[in-house]
Design a protein that fits this description.
Blueprint: H1 5-10, E1 16-27, E2 30-42, E3 46-50, H2 57-64, E4 72-77, E5 80-81, H3 90-94, E6 97-100, H4 112-122, H5 127-140, H6 156-168, E7 174-178, H7 186-201, E8 205-209, H8 213-219, E9 222-227, E10 230-235
Parallel strand pairs: 3-8, 3-9, 6-7, 7-8
Antiparallel strand pairs: 1-2, 1-4, 4-5, 9-10
Helix pairs in contact: 4-5, 4-6
Length: 236
Amino acid sequence: MPQSPRRAAESAPSPETVRLSAVSFSYAESPDVLRDVNLILPRGSFHFLTGASGAGKSSLLRLLTLADRPTGGRISLFGQDVTEVSSKDRPDWRRRMGVVFQDFRLLDHLSVFDNAALPLRVRGGKRSDYAADVEEMLAWVGLAARANALPTALSGGEKQRLAIARAVMARPDLILADEPTGSVDPAMADRLLKLFQALNRLGATVLIASHDEALAQRSGARRLVLRDGRISGAAT
């Protein structure tokens, strides 16, 4: 039985944030999306995950966010086996992650400010304690003037930036981002990359799935290549 997320956080930190051991995954209509994937992300590392469309990048991230279970193999997060973690415990594990989804998953009834602040509110924080931090983050992603707007009034690129702000707001231990710069211009992509790099320097482990080979190269991060369902190579 794995420890609870709280007890795992209180124990000595693992040198590995993520370990996949012979992990396979398939959908009924798409067998062998992932096949015998072995992967270790050391604590505090920064990686780009690249590969053709349909290679399985999003499926791999879904496994790491515990949205799906592997059809074979084992998954460990923060030194604990979470392959068969219960639905009751999943939210606690996810609070240690910041996840940027391709479809944004913003709450349309909340303002830009309140969407960004959501991870802090969930943890019981008071608005007076976190307001300045949220305002600073919104300024960083270019949304300071849109703080009171609703997501329905935002462009695709603005929604993307808000999703990133929300994901990293609570300085999570693990940041998983699925095409986080796909809807922004090159200048903003570089600015967002600097944000991920800054959080990485503060200790977060970062994995970005992206088609943007040029951005991956500029990042200086290690590149993992997903091909034919396997992590088939890595380059610096």
